[in-house]
Automatic annotation (TrEMBL):
Coiled coil: none annotated. This is Formylglycine-generating enzyme family protein. Keywords: Signal. It comes from Bradyrhizobium zhengyangense. GO terms for molecular function: formylglycine-generating oxidase activity.
Protein backbone atom coordinates (compact mmCIF):
# COMPACT_ATOMS: atom_id res chain seq x y z
CA UNK A 1 0.00 0.00 0.00
CA UNK A 2 1.46 3.41 -0.98
CA UNK A 3 1.76 6.30 1.45
CA UNK A 4 -1.35 8.15 0.25
CA UNK A 5 -3.52 5.04 0.35
CA UNK A 6 -2.24 4.20 3.85
CA UNK A 7 -3.09 7.67 5.16
CA UNK A 8 -6.52 7.54 3.51
CA UNK A 9 -7.23 4.17 5.11
CA UNK A 10 -6.40 5.57 8.57
CA UNK A 11 -8.75 8.52 8.08
CA UNK A 12 -11.58 6.27 6.89
CA UNK A 13 -11.04 3.92 9.85
CA UNK A 14 -11.24 6.83 12.25
CA UNK A 15 -14.49 8.06 10.70
CA UNK A 16 -16.18 4.67 10.51
CA UNK A 17 -15.13 3.43 13.94
CA UNK A 18 -15.51 6.82 15.70
CA UNK A 19 -11.97 6.46 17.01
CA UNK A 20 -9.63 9.49 17.29
CA UNK A 21 -7.17 9.53 14.38
CA UNK A 22 -4.18 9.78 16.73
CA UNK A 23 -5.14 6.48 18.35
CA UNK A 24 -5.76 4.77 14.99
CA UNK A 25 -2.31 5.90 13.83
CA UNK A 26 -0.68 4.76 17.07
CA UNK A 27 -2.24 1.32 16.83
CA UNK A 28 -1.39 1.02 13.14
CA UNK A 29 2.25 1.83 13.84
CA UNK A 30 2.51 -0.98 16.39
CA UNK A 31 3.34 -3.85 14.06
CA UNK A 32 2.37 -7.17 15.67
CA UNK A 33 5.11 -9.48 16.83
CA UNK A 34 5.46 -12.28 14.22
CA UNK A 35 5.89 -14.98 16.85
CA UNK A 36 5.61 -15.21 20.61
CA UNK A 37 9.11 -16.56 21.06
CA UNK A 38 10.61 -15.82 24.44
CA UNK A 39 12.17 -12.32 24.44
CA UNK A 40 15.74 -11.98 25.62
CA UNK A 41 17.97 -9.09 26.59
CA UNK A 42 19.51 -9.37 23.11
CA UNK A 43 16.12 -8.94 21.39
CA UNK A 44 15.66 -5.73 19.35
CA UNK A 45 14.02 -3.00 21.39
CA UNK A 46 11.32 -1.89 21.71
CA UNK A 47 9.45 -5.16 21.86
CA UNK A 48 5.71 -5.13 21.40
CA UNK A 49 4.24 -8.09 23.28
CA UNK A 50 0.58 -8.33 22.29
CA UNK A 51 0.09 -11.33 24.53
CA UNK A 52 -3.35 -10.55 25.94
CA UNK A 53 -2.26 -12.60 28.94
CA UNK A 54 -0.13 -11.83 32.02
CA UNK A 55 3.61 -11.75 31.42
CA UNK A 56 5.53 -14.76 32.67
CA UNK A 57 8.41 -14.10 35.04
CA UNK A 58 11.07 -14.69 32.31
CA UNK A 59 9.18 -12.38 29.94
CA UNK A 60 8.94 -9.68 32.60
CA UNK A 61 12.62 -9.95 33.54
CA UNK A 62 13.55 -9.64 29.85
CA UNK A 63 11.75 -6.32 29.42
CA UNK A 64 13.87 -3.34 28.42
CA UNK A 65 13.03 0.40 28.52
CA UNK A 66 10.29 1.38 26.04
CA UNK A 67 9.18 -2.23 25.45
CA UNK A 68 5.40 -2.51 25.21
CA UNK A 69 2.97 -5.14 26.45
CA UNK A 70 -0.73 -5.77 27.10
CA UNK A 71 -1.76 -8.41 29.64
CA UNK A 72 -5.41 -9.01 28.80
CA UNK A 73 -7.82 -8.24 25.99
CA UNK A 74 -9.29 -5.21 27.75
CA UNK A 75 -6.17 -4.18 29.70
CA UNK A 76 -4.45 -0.84 29.03
CA UNK A 77 -1.51 -0.91 26.62
CA UNK A 78 1.62 -0.52 28.74
CA UNK A 79 5.15 0.75 28.07
CA UNK A 80 8.29 0.26 30.18
CA UNK A 81 9.63 3.50 31.67
CA UNK A 82 13.41 3.66 32.16
CA UNK A 83 14.66 4.24 35.67
CA UNK A 84 16.55 7.42 36.45
CA UNK A 85 16.67 10.69 38.37
CA UNK A 86 15.10 14.05 37.54
CA UNK A 87 14.42 17.45 39.04
CA UNK A 88 10.81 17.59 40.17
CA UNK A 89 8.95 20.89 40.32
CA UNK A 90 9.47 24.25 38.65
CA UNK A 91 11.61 27.28 39.36
CA UNK A 92 10.03 30.64 40.17
CA UNK A 93 10.99 31.99 36.74
CA UNK A 94 9.02 29.35 34.80
CA UNK A 95 5.98 31.06 33.32
CA UNK A 96 2.84 30.08 35.20
CA UNK A 97 4.60 28.25 38.02
CA UNK A 98 3.23 28.44 41.56
CA UNK A 99 4.69 28.10 45.04
CA UNK A 100 3.27 24.59 45.50
CA UNK A 101 5.68 23.36 42.79
CA UNK A 102 8.64 24.16 45.01
CA UNK A 103 11.17 23.56 46.34
CA UNK A 104 12.56 21.80 43.30
CA UNK A 105 14.17 18.54 44.36
CA UNK A 106 15.84 15.45 42.94
CA UNK A 107 13.77 12.27 42.73
CA UNK A 108 15.07 8.85 41.75
CA UNK A 109 12.59 6.60 39.94
CA UNK A 110 12.88 2.85 39.59
CA UNK A 111 11.85 1.37 36.24
CA UNK A 112 8.13 0.58 36.01
CA UNK A 113 5.43 0.33 33.35
CA UNK A 114 2.80 2.97 32.60
CA UNK A 115 -0.30 3.14 30.42
CA UNK A 116 0.44 4.70 27.04
CA UNK A 117 -2.96 6.41 27.27
CA UNK A 118 -5.37 7.25 30.07
CA UNK A 119 -7.80 4.41 30.79
CA UNK A 120 -10.42 4.31 28.03
CA UNK A 121 -14.17 4.02 28.35
CA UNK A 122 -13.99 0.53 26.87
CA UNK A 123 -11.38 -0.53 29.42
CA UNK A 124 -13.50 0.93 32.22
CA UNK A 125 -16.56 -0.96 30.96
CA UNK A 126 -14.59 -4.21 31.32
CA UNK A 127 -14.16 -3.37 35.01
CA UNK A 128 -17.91 -2.79 35.36
CA UNK A 129 -18.65 -6.13 33.68
CA UNK A 130 -16.07 -7.75 35.96
CA UNK A 131 -17.87 -6.33 39.04
CA UNK A 132 -14.81 -4.31 40.01
CA UNK A 133 -16.16 -0.82 39.23
CA UNK A 134 -19.55 0.53 40.23
CA UNK A 135 -19.52 3.90 38.44
CA UNK A 136 -20.88 3.80 34.90
CA UNK A 137 -19.10 6.58 33.04
CA UNK A 138 -21.21 9.22 31.31
CA UNK A 139 -21.01 8.49 27.60
CA UNK A 140 -23.22 10.09 24.98
CA UNK A 141 -20.72 9.78 22.12
CA UNK A 142 -20.17 6.00 22.18
CA UNK A 143 -16.45 6.56 21.63
CA UNK A 144 -15.08 3.71 23.67
CA UNK A 145 -11.43 4.54 22.93
CA UNK A 146 -11.62 8.00 24.52
CA UNK A 147 -10.54 8.50 28.15
CA UNK A 148 -13.00 7.59 30.86
CA UNK A 149 -13.97 10.76 32.73
CA UNK A 150 -16.01 12.04 35.68
CA UNK A 151 -14.48 9.52 38.10
CA UNK A 152 -13.71 10.08 41.76
CA UNK A 153 -10.33 9.23 43.32
CA UNK A 154 -11.77 6.18 45.11
CA UNK A 155 -13.21 4.90 41.82
CA UNK A 156 -9.81 5.24 40.17
CA UNK A 157 -8.44 3.19 43.04
CA UNK A 158 -11.16 0.55 42.51
CA UNK A 159 -10.11 0.19 38.88
CA UNK A 160 -6.45 -0.60 39.59
CA UNK A 161 -7.43 -3.00 42.35
CA UNK A 162 -9.72 -4.84 39.93
CA UNK A 163 -7.02 -4.87 37.24
CA UNK A 164 -4.57 -6.39 39.72
CA UNK A 165 -7.06 -9.12 40.64
CA UNK A 166 -7.97 -9.80 37.01
CA UNK A 167 -4.35 -10.22 35.89
CA UNK A 168 -2.67 -11.38 39.08
CA UNK A 169 -0.11 -8.64 38.53
CA UNK A 170 0.70 -5.50 40.59
CA UNK A 171 -1.19 -2.68 38.87
CA UNK A 172 -1.61 0.55 40.84
CA UNK A 173 -2.10 4.29 40.63
CA UNK A 174 0.86 6.43 39.66
CA UNK A 175 2.67 8.43 42.31
CA UNK A 176 2.82 12.16 41.68
CA UNK A 177 6.57 12.07 41.04
CA UNK A 178 6.18 9.18 38.58
CA UNK A 179 3.48 11.13 36.74
CA UNK A 180 5.74 14.16 36.32
CA UNK A 181 8.65 11.91 35.35
CA UNK A 182 6.71 10.28 32.49
CA UNK A 183 5.31 13.63 31.37
CA UNK A 184 8.81 15.07 31.07
CA UNK A 185 10.32 11.96 29.46
CA UNK A 186 13.83 13.27 29.99
CA UNK A 187 13.03 16.87 29.01
CA UNK A 188 13.34 19.96 31.23
CA UNK A 189 10.91 22.35 29.53
CA UNK A 190 7.40 23.31 30.63
CA UNK A 191 5.92 20.85 28.12
CA UNK A 192 7.79 17.92 26.61
CA UNK A 193 7.99 19.70 23.23
CA UNK A 194 9.08 23.08 24.61
CA UNK A 195 8.04 26.02 26.78
CA UNK A 196 4.94 27.18 24.90
CA UNK A 197 1.58 25.55 24.27
CA UNK A 198 0.01 25.61 20.77
CA UNK A 199 -3.42 26.97 21.67
CA UNK A 200 -5.62 29.90 20.76
CA UNK A 201 -4.54 33.01 22.68
CA UNK A 202 -8.13 33.73 23.62
CA UNK A 203 -8.21 30.60 25.81
CA UNK A 204 -4.89 31.24 27.50
CA UNK A 205 -6.37 33.01 30.55
CA UNK A 206 -9.28 30.63 30.96
CA UNK A 207 -9.30 29.04 34.41
CA UNK A 208 -12.56 27.12 34.47
CA UNK A 209 -15.79 26.81 32.59
CA UNK A 210 -18.57 24.54 31.45
CA UNK A 211 -17.82 21.18 29.90
CA UNK A 212 -16.99 21.59 26.20
CA UNK A 213 -19.15 19.79 23.62
CA UNK A 214 -18.21 16.12 23.54
CA UNK A 215 -17.22 16.05 19.83
CA UNK A 216 -14.37 18.51 20.57
CA UNK A 217 -13.57 17.66 24.18
CA UNK A 218 -10.63 15.45 23.22
CA UNK A 219 -9.37 17.48 20.26
CA UNK A 220 -6.54 18.87 22.32
CA UNK A 221 -2.81 19.52 21.92
CA UNK A 222 -0.24 17.59 19.88
CA UNK A 223 -1.39 14.10 18.91
CA UNK A 224 2.15 12.72 18.87
CA UNK A 225 3.58 10.72 21.78
CA UNK A 226 6.32 12.17 23.94
CA UNK A 227 9.92 10.91 23.54
CA UNK A 228 9.09 7.77 25.56
CA UNK A 229 6.06 6.86 23.46
CA UNK A 230 3.45 8.03 26.00
CA UNK A 231 0.40 9.93 24.78
CA UNK A 232 -1.75 12.73 26.21
CA UNK A 233 0.45 13.64 29.18
CA UNK A 234 -0.66 17.31 29.00
CA UNK A 235 -4.33 16.56 28.44
CA UNK A 236 -7.14 16.23 27.41
CA UNK A 237 -7.77 14.88 30.93
CA UNK A 238 -6.19 15.00 34.36
CA UNK A 239 -5.02 11.74 35.90
CA UNK A 240 -5.71 11.07 39.57
CA UNK A 241 -2.52 9.98 41.36
CA UNK A 242 -2.03 8.17 44.65
CA UNK A 243 -0.61 11.14 46.58
CA UNK A 244 -2.40 13.22 49.17
CA UNK A 245 -2.18 16.97 48.61
CA UNK A 246 0.59 19.01 50.25
CA UNK A 247 1.04 22.75 49.76
CA UNK A 248 4.77 22.46 49.10
CA UNK A 249 7.37 19.77 48.43
CA UNK A 250 9.05 20.21 51.81
CA UNK A 251 9.51 16.68 53.15
CA UNK A 252 8.39 15.00 49.91
CA UNK A 253 9.71 11.47 49.16
CA UNK A 254 12.81 11.35 46.98
CA UNK A 255 12.43 7.71 45.90
CA UNK A 256 9.40 7.97 43.59
CA UNK A 257 6.93 6.63 46.15
CA UNK A 258 3.54 8.22 46.77
CA UNK A 259 3.27 10.80 49.57
CA UNK A 260 0.34 9.46 51.57
CA UNK A 261 0.90 11.20 54.91
CA UNK A 262 -1.11 14.12 56.24
CA UNK A 263 -4.57 15.25 55.17
CA UNK A 264 -5.73 12.73 52.56
CA UNK A 265 -9.18 14.23 52.07
CA UNK A 266 -7.60 15.93 49.03
CA UNK A 267 -5.64 14.22 46.27
CA UNK A 268 -3.46 15.36 43.38
CA UNK A 269 -4.28 15.38 39.67
CA UNK A 270 -1.83 15.81 36.80
CA UNK A 271 -2.44 16.40 33.09
CA UNK A 272 -4.61 19.02 31.41
CA UNK A 273 -8.08 20.04 30.26
CA UNK A 274 -9.52 22.38 27.65
CA UNK A 275 -11.53 24.06 30.42
CA UNK A 276 -8.54 25.06 32.54
CA UNK A 277 -5.68 27.50 32.05
CA UNK A 278 -2.73 26.54 29.88
CA UNK A 279 -0.39 26.99 32.85
CA UNK A 280 -2.10 24.14 34.69
CA UNK A 281 -1.07 21.70 31.93
CA UNK A 282 2.69 22.11 32.33
CA UNK A 283 4.78 19.09 33.33
CA UNK A 284 5.31 20.52 36.82
CA UNK A 285 1.77 21.84 37.33
CA UNK A 286 -0.38 20.23 40.00
CA UNK A 287 -3.98 20.68 41.04
CA UNK A 288 -6.04 19.11 43.80
CA UNK A 289 -9.63 18.20 44.48
CA UNK A 290 -11.46 16.50 47.29
CA UNK A 291 -11.42 12.74 46.93
CA UNK A 292 -15.18 12.64 46.33
CA UNK A 293 -15.22 15.34 43.65
CA UNK A 294 -16.36 14.33 40.18
CA UNK A 295 -15.46 16.54 37.18
CA UNK A 296 -15.62 16.07 33.43
CA UNK A 297 -11.81 16.07 33.13
CA UNK A 298 -10.93 13.57 35.90
CA UNK A 299 -9.49 10.27 34.70
CA UNK A 300 -6.76 7.75 35.51
CA UNK A 301 -3.60 6.38 33.92
CA UNK A 302 -2.34 3.12 35.41
CA UNK A 303 1.10 2.04 36.57
CA UNK A 304 2.47 -1.47 36.99
CA UNK A 305 5.31 -2.43 39.30
CA UNK A 306 7.98 -4.54 37.57
CA UNK A 307 10.13 -7.20 39.19
CA UNK A 308 13.66 -5.93 39.90
Amino acid sequence: MNGFAHCLSLVLAALVLHVPLARIAALASDAPVPALSMPTKESPSPLNLRLDRPLSRPEELALAPLDRFKECEHCPAMIVVPGGSFTMGASADESGSTADERPQHQVTIRSFAVGRFPVSRGEWDACIIGKGCSFRAFDTSNRRSEPVTDIEWSEAREYVEWLSRATGRPYRMLSESEREYVARAGTKTAFWWGDSFPIDRGRERQVAGPSPPLPTMFDFGPSLPNPWGIYEVHGPVYDWVEDCWHDTYKGAPADGSAWIEGDCSRHVLRGGSVSRAVQTRRAAARIWFGSSNRMHYMSIRVARTLQP
